[in-house]
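User: Show me a protein chain along with its predicted structure.
Assistant: Here is one chain, sequence first, then structure tokens.
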Amino acid sequence: MAQVQILVAAHFYNPGVRGMRGGADQNDKVWGLAKVQGTLVRFWGRRNGPLQSKTEINGVPHDLLRKKLEKGYMAMGANSMAALVPTLERDIPSDYFRAMARGQLNTRH
């Protein structure tokens, strides 16, 4: 499995909003940047749902994090994010390799 290094991460939680079908709160979201085999990858999604990811070309991790903090996200460390989303280190590389297989992986950094 590919090595994943979480660079910055943030969590947003608003307990008052529930999804249409119950389940996870609509505003229980995670966001972050990780390195997968030297490529910067942005990930985001609902905490208890599938995460989305894409490669990041021009991002400066702490500048991107600052923008999320301005929107109400709370910064967290890599260990806290891994505890909050236990499948994180499995999901990010699988998205990375699927994008690479489709020829949609942008590695110009």
